[in-house]
Amino acid sequence: MPITSSAKKALRASKHKAVFNMKRRDTVSDTVKKVKKLIVAKDIKGAEKLLPTAFQAIDKACKTNLIHKNTASRKKSRLAKMLAKASK
Q1: Is 80 domain-assigned?
Q2: CATH number at residue 49
Q3: Structural contact between residues 46 and 38, judged by C-beta atoms closer than 8 angstroms
Q4: 18: Cα separation from own chain's centroid
Q5: How far is CA 6 from the centre of its chain?
Q6: Among 13, 56, 61, 82, which is least packed, fewest CB within 10 Å?
């Protein structure tokens, strides 16, 4: 348990940020899963409509340093590659 007042404040801030980080992380994983599910179901039009939303979620997570920029690039690249392969 924190003893000093600054440590107590840091703990409060950390808990507050954790809520936002968890929400953003869930958004990324949920949208990526939805896109993958649509690709597997051969719903290319639906996946193409949802792809910008997934890219936006990934970019926001990268911007707030939740995920590394290379991880964001890899996720976006693999999603686009899956969609391109499925649409052939």
Answers
A1: yes
A2: 1.20.58.110
A3: yes
A4: 15
A5: 31
A6: 13
Residue 88 has pLDDT above 90, yes or no: no
pLDDT digits (tens, 9 = 90+) for 57-85: 999 999 999 999 999 999 999 999 999 99
HEC secondary structure over the chain: CCCCHHHHHHHHHHHHHHHHHHHHHHHHHHHHHHHHHHHHCCCHHHHHHHHHHHHHHHHHHHHCCCCCHHHHHHHHHHHHHHHHHHHC
Instruction: Give dist(CA 79, CA 26) in Å, integer.
Output: 17
C-alpha to C-alpha distance for 19 and 39, rounded to whole angstroms: 30
Cα separation values, 57 from 2, 8, 39, 53, 75, Å: 34, 32, 18, 6, 11
Two tokens, residue 28: 């990324």
- Is residue 11 a part of any domain in this protein? no
User: Which domain, by its residues, includes 25?
Assistant: 17-87
